[in-house]
Amino acid sequence: MRAAVFANPGACQIVERELPMPAERQALIRVEACGVCGTDAHIYRGEFPARFPLVAGHEFAGVVEEIGVDVPYLRPGDHVTIDPNIPCGACRACRRGLTHLCRHLSAVGVTQDGGFATHCLVPAPQCHKVSDGVPFGVAAMAEPVACCVHGIDRANLHAGEIVVLIGAGTIGLILLQLALLQGAATTIVSEPSPEKRREAERLGAFRTVDPTSEELQESVTQVTQGWGADVVIECVGSQQTAQQALELASDGGRVLLFGVAPETARIALSPFAVYRKEICVTGSFTNPFTHGRALALISSGRLQVDQLISHRLALDEVVRGIELLESGRATKVILEPQRAG
Prior knowledge:
This protein is of the alpha/beta class. It contains 11 helices and 17 strands. Helix content is 28%, strand content 27%.
């Protein structure tokens, strides 16, 4: 098998390895498509805790090639996607049903080798079957969609509400669609890229704003007649946009900080404003029990994810994929490990 190994931060090598054999409750997956996401870029740059050397990649789909013992729910030839997050099952968070907040959480592609390879060995319970009719590149989007489904749950969005989304990358465009499916009456999207603004408009955004030349606050004030947004979803992960999100919420509004800001970032918060306006500020982390719902949305065709894939690259182009993502020139990059470079 071939694998893209991050030997150290900033160092990637394509290496040949022995094909692993699955042990008890494991499955060997032939990886057909694997998404490149911001976490992968942070791991590559040494900005995210990971074990080196590492084969990254946690958004992937493929075909079951071999199964170990005690795997009655899979068979060779099944098409699957992977829920990468593996809780311990025994800590206080796990026993309260908060498996995503497990103190001992591990993850395929972060703490153990993932999908930037032609094959990947995974715990069989992490596999979700996919209809053979769903393209692998689309199926690989299940993990980010699952994270977004959890985000919409956390935002407690109701039909008829006004929603502002800051950022229209892959995540922002998925959240936009989910907000509309949930019944958002009006959606305003802030995004500096003209291509991504056009995509947001195509997907149904009521208004898009270029924050480099327009004041988002003024647009929200105009559209909402001065009230502000019922729900503000921050998808960028910067200190500036997180601060902006708090300022856009209406009385009784909810702010979802979805973007991954640096751990050291800090913003100003008025306790009186939170008290007087009853603003709810919440976060959203990974995808607890939402992978199946994400697959249902993707399989139904109600969620458009294929159009979000801007680049399809061979395995040995992984660094180029990361650079495209970091530059903002890509919406979604998919690696196809079985394709020749």
